[in-house]
């Protein structure tokens, strides 16, 4: 699947030079902690001792989920309204993108109602109006729809002119999809992968887990090898916005671009993308650990250490944009800091 899409392992040939540069800085050795690791990754990605990420773009994909009609979210199916809010510059993500100089691109991947467009354009990548089917009783989407969403994303990722790609999503009910994908791919029980999403209480979480488990019982991936297994899971219990984001990740990584993950939903996108091509993980940076219960374990599985830990559970790409100042800070350090030898000569 996607044989023509080549993703090279992140070129480590620059790693020695990058580590040496870090170790030469006028700081006690290792004093930048996790920011030091980030610095090395940034340098390697651009094969430069002074990397810059001026053109950053958040791909915010929105879609509705059939399972949301069964009360698995604290909120009704208002995904079109929250996307419209961002289009009218009234969402948290607008404020964050404005503050941190990030281009915001909104995508309708399949909503129940058409969103009212404001001053920020909403690009149409609709797979099916009305969103996915209720995965607790039937496949969320057809193979054609799943493939189309992945292809839409690949095209977006490949044609992006930005040097840093941020992932964001909106979709009432999408934590149910994400938990289902995680559970099926890792052979876990739904109850061990669900969380409160937008704010369910314990009773709501039990109800959500029961419906997810019911959906997982409808199909098996035991006979499938990767990436067919991941494709089947995405088709059976996934969402249009998640599939589009998987494609964006694959397309961006194939062009050597770094990808900044957001919360639980984008970690599940990473898990899926890695099943299509394991090298995609080389290009991904985890921005934050969200409040969603399974996010921490999933990040460990992906071998990703989040930069921030703020107990946020907003989605929209908010955590990813909040990590930009750290990336900018590291770039500024690399550009401006003296070496210890230079400092001792001052
Ligand atoms: O980013 C996260 O980790 C995260 C955790 C919980 C909820 N969300 C957001 O809330 C929505 C999904 O929650 P729910 O309860 O409707 O499944 C969706 O629009 C996400 O952007 C996001
Ligand atoms: C208001 C609202 C804003 C959101 N942003 C992302 N998911 C969301 C869900 C709701 C309910």
TrEMBL record:
Protein name from the UniProt record: Nicotinate-nucleotide--dimethylbenzimidazole phosphoribosyltransferase
Enzyme class: transferase
CDD domains linked: DMB-PRT_CobT
One Pfam family matching this protein: DBI_PRT
NCBIfam families linked: cobT_DBIPRT (TIGR03160), PRK00105.1 (NF000996)
Similarity field: Belongs to the CobT family.
Enzyme Commission designation: 2.4.2.21
Keywords (A to Z) from UniProt: Cobalamin biosynthesis, Glycosyltransferase, Transferase
Annotated GO MF terms: nicotinate-nucleotide-dimethylbenzimidazole phosphoribosyltransferase activity
Catalysis: reaction(s): 5,6-dimethylbenzimidazole + nicotinate beta-D-ribonucleotide = alpha-ribazole 5'-phosphate + nicotinate + H(+)
Pathway: Nucleoside biosynthesis; alpha-ribazole biosynthesis; alpha-ribazole from 5,6-dimethylbenzimidazole: step 1/2
